[in-house]
Amino acid sequence: MTPLLRFLSRSVLFIAAVALSACQGAETEEALSDTGTVSQALCTATQNCPSGAQISCNGTGTVCIADQDGSGLYVQCDGGARIYCPPACTCSPTVKTESGSAWGATCGEAYTNARANAEQYSDCPGRTCSKSFTLQGCTPVSSRKTDGFNADVLLTYQCKEPVGCYP
Description:
By secondary structure, the chain is α+β, with helices and mostly antiparallel strands. Among the domains are: 43-84, no CATH class; 90-161. 28% of the residues lie in helices and 38% in strands. The chain is built from two helices and nine strands. It has helices at residues 3-35, 107-120; strands spanning 43-48, 54-59, 64-69, 72-77, 83-84, 90-91, 96-104, 128-140, 149-161. The N and C termini lie far apart (82 Å).
């Protein structure tokens, strides 16, 4: 075999090997893409808020920011919307009340059910704070105690504010 022929055959083998490995890589990428596992976040921004909350975002680019401006601490990824730290909660000075009534096989069960009913109807846009329950009474439904009991409770509470606060 002449040196030229040997060179050409080695070149053909080298090119074939490179082409096959390139095709193999493309097949792997397509398979991963079909399963949705190819895209990974390339950056993350995290901010610890004064209220105790932690906010973060993941970006597919390389620009993830944790900073603050006149509106407060924020994170921002890939030029998207800024995510601001939620404000700390305070209890509203307004005290509210709600009553609840319910039946149960025992006074304890009736009280638990009445308590849940009162909480269900509390009218805070967010969460409640400074809750207290007062048992208003528990009476048998009839002269037979096996018929169960009715309980009444009074829930006194305040609302956490502002809406969307933490914790």
